[in-house]
Predict the structure of Poly [ADP-ribose] polymerase.
Amino acid sequence: MECGEKGHICQRTCHPLSSNVHGKVKCSHTVPFPCPRGDHTLTRECREDPAEIPCKADRKIVCIRCQQLVTGRCFLTDERLMQSCPSKMSFSCGSCRSALQRKCWEEESAVKCTKLIEWGCKACGTKRRRQCHQPESACESLVPFRCMKGGHQGKKRCSSTEQPQCDAPCCAPLACGHPCQGRKCFQDCVSPKDCAQCKEIQKAEAKARRELEKEVRQKVKQNLEAELKVLESHEGGGISLVEGNEAKREEVCLLLKEKSVSSEWSFRLDNVWTVLNRPAERLFIDTKLHLKQPQQPNTYLFASVPSLQEAKSLSLAALPSEEASAPSHDSDRQTPYRFLSGQIDLETHKSSGLFKEQDGRKSAFLVVFEAAVGNVKIMEPLSRREFARKDLVEKRWAFGLRHDSLVWLGAQAGSASERPGESLRSADNSKDARRDVFVLKREPQAMPRYIVEVSRQANPASGFGVPPYWTRSTAVAPTGDGGRRSDTFRGFHLIPVKESDKAVRKALQSALDATPSGFLGKGRDQMVGGRYSRLELACAWRIENRRRWQIFDAERQTVRENCAAVNRTAEGVFRPADINANLVEACKSLPCASTLRQREANEFLLWHGTKKEVLLSLLQQGLNERFNKAAAFGPGTYFAEDAGKSDQYVSAHSSFDPSGAEETILYKECGQKKPEGDVFYIFLCRVLMGVFVSGNSSAFTNQNELQFIPETSPPLRHHCLLAGGGGGFRYREIIQPHGSRIYAEYLIAYQRR
């Protein structure tokens, strides 16, 4: 055979040598060989490898752990043989100290202690059992819990960290004060606008309002009819002018001051004539009886005329005969519309040349009408050219929709006798249109009451007017019913800062950037945290609130006088405020910069953070210091020279409700689109710092007023407190204890980046 062993011969039958059979057949002779691990003799076939044949004889070794003899198969390694050592060793459990046994070769950690031990849940105290080697499992005991939303009692697993679903009926109070109904506690509450009780109350109130309105309308009509009978009982009725007495002059003067919208000029009342026109008065009352809403109070409107003669002609015009003068109340009749102004703008009179030389002085004439506006439709503000292109078709269409008169907010118009296009071509050409134009459906709706002669005088410091850059003098609120009611006045108007107003937007963004980026998002006062390094301008609105401005302007004059008095009696006490130079520089590009009284009254633009929920209240009523009495530096309204400080007190406007009041007024009415993501709101306010004091809450007295200014007689109090800065404070704060010294100039919506 090929194995070469002696005596190993081929065991097959004889075959030819030419075939290579021996190379293919392995040798199968039995061959003995010694065991490599002991003295045993093993056998194998010649073709097999000795290393692959295990020795199955028994052999004994000494266990190196317990020194006992261990018997096992010879082919096993010593380590494997020792693992079959039957010896037992005792040890104590590391947890319960119980006596345990392990095999010689086992580790102590491999032996599981099966002793039952008792343990208590740390949360609920329930006693449980487990084997010693088992970990403490989650407690499955049911424990009572209280629903965080509605306070309902229920049960949950002790180990559960999540609030379980409460299936009790929801009774949480809504923003309107009524309990939520028709929902489970785990579900979101209904929106306040969907509150069933509110809807029922609104229906009842609407019904009561309609009934009351109907009753008032009936009473007004009865009074008007009685008044008309009294007038008709007088034979004839004259048409004349009566020069006004001192009481009448004072009454008319107050009326004109209230309606003035000029800030650079004030007027002097020279002459007043009362118009007595019985035929026109009878026609006026008869016309008011047929208005859609005769119960609406009358208002005073104005017409500018170049001379006294034209004023008399307009006021004392001969009326048609009684038969022809009966007004037609058919809305399709083409009646002569009358265009009158709701305000007086002396700057318009100056630019249009209405001030004429009269007896050595320049004077102008106004005709004051008492107008029965009835049901007013508020039209969209129009520019001069847009207003000139409007024809009477749209106006007649609006009159057909149950309206007695129209008003264009901030439109420009000239004399009462002209059509809109003609008056605009001949009158004011200034860039700001600031007067409201009323269009009366019937000419008898306006009854001439007075002719006044006024002369103008420069008064740049203060007055009854508004800033020259304003575009509205009053703000009329839409009613949501297509403008069919005119008795809802909002009191403020928002002028959106559009994308085209690049200079203003750049100035506002620079003012926001005046805060060091490293301070943003830090501080214990931070209400809404996050990582960001910039406040980015999203939208902005300039605020026009005539009532708040008049209060502020009057107080500004008082502060200026106080500062001047302090300068005279206590030199060095009145000093300029070192407000953030970056903020002051950025605000120089704003339209209001030229009207700030920094030198005379320390008037600066400062920041005040706010929330969406109180926006409309602040826009209408202004900032009120009475809501903040427990602050760090004392009572008052808090302002900052760095927007980052005011950013600590804002809350996010996340969800967008198209029917919400804030969304409607800020975005829908102003043609603004709400940015995606969270939006925050901040006011940029005019603040009168006047004679300020630096310190903390100790500067306040027990009456929530600041201390007296030294060396002043009679004593004057400090106007403002400047607190913080240094000593661990990142920002300084300005505390103003009087809301009359604050005027919100801009509302800014920004995002954190």
Notes: The domain at 234-318+333-458 is CATH 3.90.228.10 (Phosphoenolpyruvate Carboxykinase; domain 3). The CA atoms of residues 48 and 98 lie 55 Å apart. Residues 196-233 form the longest helix (38 residues). The longest strand covers residues 265-277.
